[in-house]
């Protein structure tokens, strides 16, 4: 994929920090890439970055195995900004004095600014910053001056203006540094001379040209799930190569209310994309008949999805490329040790392992929020752009116990009430995921003087940044009351509604 001419590199000394910095840089409409701290000098030079940012990280520069980048980076003549550990490393490599501080500094501090130096221009005589460090730079290297200090840290911001090397002990990338964004803008625009021209429109334009170059006259296949990634990828590729693209949408019968119709309507009627709509509902339900074990459900749906997809690909004949909705965080994280498998995740649209296609990954430079902005630029409906994450195995893993048509129907109706009410309350974007789970537990109730014995439904709503950790959403009590009343009145076979107040960890977002 084509990269914009003007770019900045974020050197990664500790993954969570670097991703956040990268997102901030891109919010300033400057393209950036995250590279490992030990990227060879030559590789950096090849990218001709306008600037380099050293991220923070949990290590101490003196620690065993502490990550050290090539010191010659500081001689490239390219502006460098070191953040926290990054600043300590610059100082250490250039002969400054880095020491373990007497006490860790953690939390808010007031930065008193002596001199803007380009980096702190316009931030006033003093501004609030967020500190989180154990080591400190006691004496900056030769040639450096102090731009700002806090009560605890005299060298909170330093610079060698001739060599355009900067360091800040605090974290401008976090929201707790309210003017951090201006600092990053200063570095990008004033120090590095970048312009804010990495926009959804420029991305679409460059990608369309790059996809055309890559694909030429060949044929492209895309597995469409209706999720934001595969939808944006499909529309983008379609804009580039038109009818050379065929999308395959597998309806496994485990989708939410109205979902299949929306996918078909959007892609076939609105975008006029060649869409193969495979009604595989029977196939999946037959295989799931009598299966109650969560992992078994996941494996069956994953395996069958690949089979259906392969069958369709074979019917289509000669296909050269397969579109993959890979995103930038996957690119950065690939190769790092992955955590223990808690659940075997399955991505609809994921690569069937033994199909022999060339890969087309038009979103591999983007973070999720950027994918959404590109989706909007391409005119996708808001409900698709803001669609919640939805697991590949779909409702099979939200229907605890046996998965039958009847139980899926109950779940779909309950789920539509949860989603509808949360969106109506204007909380749709604040809450990361919200849905209903149908348990296999029945209990006694009373309705209109009659005893009932029916299912318990669960309302699950969580806030999260990335799905890795989550907290249960503090939904207003009257909203929960409305959801509960509607479910019991409108959905037969549900007579009890509970709200899940488990965070992740120890819980997971999905129940199975
Ligand atoms: P858990 O339940 O592990 O889920 O806390 C974390 C996030 O991942 C989603 N999820 C999946 N996504 N294929 C997917 O593409 C899957 O098999 C799958 N299982 C869970 C879940 O909805 C949440 O956003």
Structure notes:
The protein has 512 residues and is α/β, with parallel strands linked by helices. The chain folds into three domains: 7-191, Class I glutamine amidotransferase (GATase) domain (Rossmann fold, 3-Layer(aba) Sandwich); 200-385, Rossmann fold (3-Layer(aba) Sandwich); 398-499, GMP Synthetase, Chain A, domain 3, CATH 3.30.300. Helix content is 33%, strand content 24%. It has 14 helices and 18 strands. The strands form three sheets. The chain has a nine-stranded mixed sheet with strand order 2-1-3-4-9-8-7-5-6, sandwiched between helices. The protein has a five-stranded parallel sheet with strand order 12-11-10-13-14, with helices on both faces. The longest helix has 23 residues, at 294-316. Bound molecules: xanthosine-5'-monophosphate. Residues 342-343, 345-347, 389, 391-393, 433, 467, 504, 508-510 line the site of xanthosine-5'-monophosphate.
């Amino acid at each position: 994929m084509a990269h914009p001419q003007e770019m900045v590199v974020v050197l990664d000394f500790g993954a969570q920090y670097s991703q956040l910095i990268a997102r901030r840089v891109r919010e300033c409409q400057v393209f950036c890439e995250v590279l490992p701290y030990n990227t060879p000098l030559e590789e950096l030079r090849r990218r001709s970055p306008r600037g380099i940012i050293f991220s923070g990280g949990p290590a101490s520069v003196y620690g065993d195995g502490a990550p050290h980048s090539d010191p010659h980076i500081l001689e490239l003549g390219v502006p460098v900004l070191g953040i926290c550990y990054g600043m300590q490393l610059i100082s250490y490599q250039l002969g400054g004095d880095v020491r373990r501080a007497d006490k860790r500094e953690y939390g808010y501090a007031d930065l008193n600014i002596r001199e803007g130096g380009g980096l702190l221009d316009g931030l006033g005589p003093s501004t609030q910053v967020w500190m989180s460090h154990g080591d400190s730079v006691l004496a900056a290297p030769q040639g450096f001056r102090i731009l700002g200090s806090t009560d605890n840290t005299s060298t909170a911001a330093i610079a060698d203006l001739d060599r355009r090397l900067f360091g800040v002990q605090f974290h401008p990338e976090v929201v707790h540094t309210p003017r951090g964004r201006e600092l990053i803008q200063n570095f990008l625009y004033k120090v590095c001379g970048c312009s804010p021209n990495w926009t959804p429109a420029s991305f679409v334009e460059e990608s369309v040209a790059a996809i055309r170059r890559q694909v030429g006259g060949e044929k492209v296949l895309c597995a469409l799930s209706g999720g934001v990634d595969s939808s944006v990828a499909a529309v983008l590729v379609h804009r580039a190569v038109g009818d050379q693209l065929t999308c395959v949408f597998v309806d496994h019968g485990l989708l939410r209310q109205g979902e299949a119709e929306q996918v078909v309507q959007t892609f076939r009627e609105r975008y006029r994309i060649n869409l193969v709509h495979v009604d595989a509902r029977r196939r999946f339900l037959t295989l799931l008949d009598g299966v109650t074990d969560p992992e078994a459900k996941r494996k069956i749906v994953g395996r069958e999805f690949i089979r259906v997809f392969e069958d369709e690909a074979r019917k289509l004949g000669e296909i050269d490329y397969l579109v993959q909705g890979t995103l930038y965080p996957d690119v950065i994280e690939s190769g790092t040790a992955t955590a223990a498998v808690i659940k075997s995740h399955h991505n609809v649209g994921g690569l069937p392992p033994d199909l022999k296609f060339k890969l087309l990954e038009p979103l591999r430079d983007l973070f999720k929020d950027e994918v959404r902005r590109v989706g909007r630029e391409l005119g996708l409906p808001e409900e698709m752009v803001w669609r919640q994450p939805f697991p590949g195995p779909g409702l099979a893993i939200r229907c605890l116990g046996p998965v039958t048509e009847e139980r899926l129907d109950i779940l779909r109706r309950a789920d539509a009430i949860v989603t509808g009410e949360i969106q109506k309350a204007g909380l749709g974007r604040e809450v990361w995921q919200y849905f209903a789970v149908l348990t296999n537990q029945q209990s006694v109730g009373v309705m209109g003087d009659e005893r009932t014995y029916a299912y318990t439904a669960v309302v699950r709503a969580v806030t999260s940044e990335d799905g890795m950790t989550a907290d249960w959403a503090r939904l207003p009590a009257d909203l929960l009351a409305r959801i509960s009343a509607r479910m019991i009145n409108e959905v037969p076979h549900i007579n009890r509604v509970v709200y899940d107040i488990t965070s992740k960890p120890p819980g997971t977002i999905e129940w199975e």
